[in-house]
Amino acid sequence: MPYDCVVLVKQVPDTQAVTGKAMNDDGTVNRGALPAIFNPEDLNALELALQIKEEHGGTVTVITMGLPKACEVLRQALYRGADRVILITDKRAAASDTLATSYILSCAVKKLGRFDLVLCGRQAIDGDTAQVGPQLAEKLGIPQITYVEKILKLDDDTIIAHRSIGSGWEKVEGKLPILLTVMDTANTPRPPGVKRMMKYKKSHSKSELAGTENTEETINFLKSKGLLIEEWNLEDVQAELVWCGRDGSPTKVNRIQSVVLTATGHKRVEPTEEGIREMVHELIEDHTIG
Amino acid sequence: MIEVNRDGEVWVFAEQQDGKLNEVSLELLGRGKVLADKLSVTMAAVLPGYEVNSLADELGAYGAEKVYLVQDPLLHEYQTTSYAKVLCNLITRHKPQIVLYGATAIGRDLAPRIASAMRAGLTADCTDLLIEDFKPPRSDQVHKNLLQQIRPAFGGNIIATIVNYDRWPQMATVREGVMPLPSRNGKLKAEIIPESVELSPEYLPLKILERHTEQRKVNLKASRIIVAGGAGLGSRENFRLVWDLANALGGAPGASRAAVDLGFIDHDYQVGQTGTTVRPALYIAVGISGAVQHCAGMSQSAKIVAINNDPEAPIFQMAHYGIAGDLNDVIPMLIKSIKERK
Ligand SMILES: Cc1cc2nc3c(=O)[nH]c(=O)nc-3n(C[C@H](O)[C@H](O)[C@H](O)COP(=O)(O)OP(=O)(O)OC[C@H]3O[C@@H](n4cnc5c(N)ncnc54)[C@H](O)[C@@H]3O)c2cc1C
Ligand SMILES: Nc1ncnc2c1ncn2[C@@H]1O[C@H](COP(=O)(O)O)[C@@H](O)[C@H]1O
Q: A205 - beta bridge partners?
């Protein structure tokens, strides 16, 4: 039986590439200096959806919420085999925390209408919160299986999944529709397909083209070729504004500090027998070692 | 969502599985008590499960003043939906101002589901919690005594302090091992309040077919002395030096992620943001540069000794004793002088 999968993906700053240049003088992170990438575990979620489609048939729809430049991750999804991609972008969605984000995403998934599986990455590397998946499941009123490493069986409306629980694993069975959050250990994401890349590298969304020359013509051209990336705003997904953006976000950032770690009472020890003997003596005196 | 309510209690979700409490819940009782005292309110634990009476007493011995005990055969096994239903019902009934969860596989599965249903804020993976006033920028209103939820963000490169002042409860998950375990006092007794929440099979949408848990090979959290080795050890063979020094001190070996990735030692030994958080009496970092993600897991150690042949290595900034030298020379000298003393 074919399955309709929805994959939620996020464009994130590559926090693993934080170097000196990426830090401002006041200790804050200069997001602009970091490359924007496809959130790694969202690629695993996409891969899992593509595998389901290959085995059972069906569709893979990919949704992201972000700035117009987040279309890049949607193109990346198209290169790998997504059937349909949608950008949710709206200034009023700015500063959304995980609660507001999951609310807006839930409105978008509901607008799609039919779905069997919703797949998220386990967590996004900009905040490592792992909250949007479970919150989205709650808002859709469907069960969740977090930390999925493998689908053991998918048959009719029943799924059996293998999930990691930190100190071990669990084999759980559930009924569709269901939401999964996918771990990096689940699979190895495929690289972009060369043919699809040639075809889709020109695809853009309206707001991504804003400000370029001959915008109107380009949009019409892309539309005629089926290359215009669908774009929804908060009205399109019928989101209530009170639950979106800053107003819809209960958590607020009070302050941000760069990490400066220093010990009090620092001491240089000479790398000689004498220096080390002295240190060991002090550590015994203060009962650190005994 | 509940209203801001200044006399609301401080709650800790008591996580148990197979009749055993997770240690992080006990760690949270320690900090929960500090927060509750500062707010002059009661600290309570919430314990859902089945046949878990003895655990309720245990929570008392670790400082819970009240235990809300919800027992039902349907709660025998943890499931997101049933446990979320229980917590949401109790939160609506008793309106706590703070609810804390361990940042475990269960806590991180459950807490966001509750936050969504309650339309409340939630901060993941906190490493510290304090009570302080907060004044939003461009506003004159001061919000008194808010929970400051402190966590690393951006891959550990910054520390963010999060608050939520208009929609309560204030909720956070807290990383395992970052708060000290309070000592057990068998004389302390909690007031046990049995609660019931109506559950039907629709709240158990999943079937757990099989569960397999492995005992961790090592319990770094319990070690008084840790000797951690990094990429500077050079090879799995040479990592032997770390084991030797740990043995000489009666301590446990630990490692940086680079050492784990290079295959010098198993992941169970990794200290740091994506490993274990430790707070031993003595932490000896050998051939470790001192990346923020590593330091996040050991900066609370009472004494830190660093051995590194690069005098500029960041690890020296946080070491109480810094030895700038080649570890291949320093470790044997260190072992020798420890043995001399014994
Ligand atoms: C999201 C994220 C999470 C992470 N989580 C963790 C984590 O949990 N734990 C963790 O440890 N890391 C973590 N890291 C990785 C971290 O950023 C560093 O890469 C890692 O800690 C470096 O390990 P190291 O200090 O052993 O290696 P290096 O940085 O390569 O340092 C090796 C050190 O050994 C010294 N040295 C070399 N030879 C000798 C010698 N003969 N004698 C003495 N000294 C010598 C060198 O001077 C150098 O300072 C994480 C990174 C990211 C992005
Ligand atoms: N803005 C977003 N757009 C689409 N999906 C998202 C967004 N934010 C989070 N997600 C999904 O939710 C998962 C968990 O995110 P987080 O809670 O931020 O760690 C991610 O791996 C994505 O699958």
A: A229
